[in-house]
Amino acid sequence: MLKNIEKLKGVKTIAQSEQLKVNGGMNACFFISCRPGTVCIDGRCVDC
Questions:
Q1: For the whole model, what pTM was predicted?
Q2: Average pLDDT over residues 34-39
Q3: How confident is the model over 14-42, as a mean pLDDT?
């Protein structure tokens, strides 16, 4: 199931998949605009 989620969301790592689950998948910029190792908080990318 994770692989299907990764394909749909463009997620590259399991860690990012876990983060998306934590965020409820709502922070689109997490995987569109943010670099790996960063997360979207209040519309801004910040280091983990």
A1: 0.27
A2: 71
A3: 60
Residue with tokens 């965020």: 23
Helix axis angle for 14-23 and 2-9, nearest 10°, is 80
- Contact in structure between 36 and 16 (CB atoms under 8 Å): yes
Which residue blocks in the chain are alpha helix, DSSP H? Answer: 2-9, 14-23, 29-32
Domain boundaries of the chain, sorted by first residue: 2-42
Residue with the two structure tokens 């689109």: 28
Radius of gyration of the chain (CA): 10
Are the beta carbons of 37 and 48 closer than 8 angstroms?
Answer: yes
Which amino acid makes up residue 25? G
In sequence order, which residues have a C-beta less than 8 Å from that of residue 22 and are 6 or more positions away?
none
